[in-house]
Design goal:
Layout (H helix, E strand, L loop, with lengths): L38 E3 L7 E2 L5 H11 L3 E5 L5 E6 H5 L1 H10 L8 H4 L1 E2 L5 E3 H5 L3 H11 L3 E7 L5 E8 H8 L8 H13 L1
Parallel strand pairs: 2-3, 6-7
Antiparallel strand pairs: 1-8, 3-4, 4-5, 7-8
Length: about 200
């Protein structure tokens, strides 16, 4: 039942030396921890997205503001058209596009540098649920990638992206310091942590 009258709460002064809470989204893991513990679950966290027509610089800005290095590229209906990573927006791909087609960096759109849907490889949610963190690290190392997407399939056979693995997040949860784009070094550091 709704109340007719609500009393305001009382304020008080904040004590000197107070700190603030920070989210503890990264649960510490080991190599034999369930893989699901290092997956960004899109049922729990909103996917970071952009459109194919967005300027490349805007995609980079979205990644920075969301604290991610991968965006799903979607259309107005929410269907996935592809994906784009920080490496795609700030690495060699934009430079090659400019060299091959002319223009300026500011002219590039997400569609110019994204990986189209037909080239995206995904892991099965069923496989992930039977896997450990070490399996995911080995998988990412085998393909030389920083990310892997996980797909869920419903009874009708329709697919949807359920989650994303990020080598950076795995490193954080394992307590291994990582730097962007240093995949070879990253895997070496994580393997050392796995062996410890």
């Amino acid at each position: 039942m709704e109340r007719a009258v609500y009393k305001p709460l009382g304020f008080r002064r904040l004590k000197a030396g107070a700190s603030y809470h920070q989210p503890s989204t990264y649960k510490p893991v080991q190599a034999d921890s369930p893989a699901i513990e290092v997956m960004t679950d899109l049922q729990q966290v909103s996917a970071a997205t952009t459109t194919a027509d967005a300027p490349l610089s805007q995609a980079t800005q979205i990644m920075v503001s969301r604290g991610v290095r991968l965006l799903l590229v979607t259309n107005a209906a929410g269907e996935i058209l592809g994906l784009i990573t920080a490496r795609d927006t700030m690495g060699e791909r934009p430079i090659k596009m400019i060299q091959e087609h002319g223009g300026k960096h500011g002219d590039l759109k997400v569609r110019d540098c994204m990986t189209p849907i037909e080239n995206i490889e995904v892991l099965s949610m069923a496989d992930v649920l039977r896997s450990e963190v070490g399996h995911i690290v080995a998988t990412l190392k085998a393909v030389g990638r920083q990310h892997a997407m996980v797909v869920d399939t419903n009874a009708a056979g329709d697919e949807s992206i359920r989650g994303i693995f990020s080598i950076t997040q795995i490193g954080r949860q394992m307590g291994v310091p990582l730097q962007a784009f240093e995949v070879a070094k990253t895997f070496a550091e994580i393997e050392a942590a796995l062996a410890a």
